[in-house]
Amino acid sequence: MNRKGFTLIELLAVIIILGILMLIAIPSVTNYINNSRKNTYVTTVNELVKGTIAKVNNGELSVYDTDTTYYVPCTCIKLENGEAKSPYGKFDPAYVVVTFDGTNYNYYFTGKDVQNMGVPTLTSADILPKESIVANVEAIDTTVGIEGTSNVYVFSDECNGEGEVGPAGTTVPGGSSGGSSSGGSTTFKGMCKKAKTLHTATCTRTTSSGCGGTVGNGNTITYGTLPNGTPKGGDAYDCDVNNDGTYDAAKERFYYVTSDGDNSILLYYTNMNNQTNYSYDSSNQNYHGPRNAYQYLPSTTEWKNTKLIAPSTRSIKNESGNGTTYSGSYSIESFTYTNKAARFLTYQELRAGCGTGSGYSSGYFDQCKWMLENLGNYEANSGSYGYWLENPYSSSSSDVWYARGDSRLVSYHYASYSSGYGVRPAITVKTTDIES
Fold first, then answer.
1. I need a surface site. Which of 10, 32, 127, 191 has the fewest CB within 10 A?
2. Is the CB of residue 127 less than 8 Å from the CB of residue 85?
3. Residues in the chain, pLDDT under 50
4. Pairing verdict, β 236-239 and 343-344
5. For residues 354 and 249, is the Cβ–Cβ distance under 8 A?
6. Separation between Cα atoms, residue 254 and residue 310, nearest integer Å
7. Does the global pTM surpass 0.70?
């Protein structure tokens, strides 16, 4: 019986063919596995984005500032099947990044896993291509802001506390669980949030009056203080008066004045209607209340946040705290701020907020510049002189108190003064609706 096996040449030919097939097949299989993993990576990111959207929509994450890029750690987004992981390992660190344009939220992603596979640059979550996922990502930079925003904000890993807000390009640490003194709780849904920046202006007063006597011509005036601990006169807050869900530092800036415990009074940073002046009462009889000027206070349809306490009927008092003027000859009528969301600050509240000084002595406002913001005759040599206070002057039936900028004092003038003074709203809110 004749037996014939493979020759050495035939075996070598088979091995070479198998090697060629493996060289062709292995990259294809590897590419298939890698593509599958990257597709899973993208799917997981989409789930994280959906979880972030849910937290933003139900108010668990406080995303409101149009000038800030918010970093939300993926560790605080819990999915139905537990903690999110990439196909290569645990995310560490990774973020869903959010911006708000005043109307819509936009979502991005950046992050890596423990095997350093990830997306090193901010990439729109709507169009995240699997090609964005690369190897050897060493670090994720949380100081980068989306174009058009000046600040970055990093939430804590638990999402129940915030880090400090800071300029893009600076290191912004994550907050601790339960909030921080600088960021506050992410679940805050009250009326007024602590300001994170202060308003400034340049003093152009060339005389010793106004800011020229306290700050100096050409120097920067800084208005208010950043809240820290128990609120005090001049602490800056941004109050969502129009109820649009945002706290606009440019248009909704208020300064804390005083409190009776349950309720707090805050003063708007500027006069209404582009610094236009109005008489207090055209009859020149101050005991009727501010019948002319009050019309230009914001209405409950303009400032429609239901957390504002409407002023309603006021028993207006003079600076001595009683209800008469001109040595008791005239009784001050109760006044109704019909359909208004704010009122005028009183003489007594102004003094409580400023803290020191007599009622009409020069220098009364030297430590309280926040009460004089945007008064042209304080910042410059011309412009609006001041704004009305609610109280009549007790020794006259025609004079009314007002805050004056050039001489930095509280003074009084005829209620029907033809040039008039500004209308600067004071709001009342529950103390619990002010971020602590």
1. 127
2. no
3. 32, 161-162, 173-187
4. unpaired
5. no
6. 17
7. no
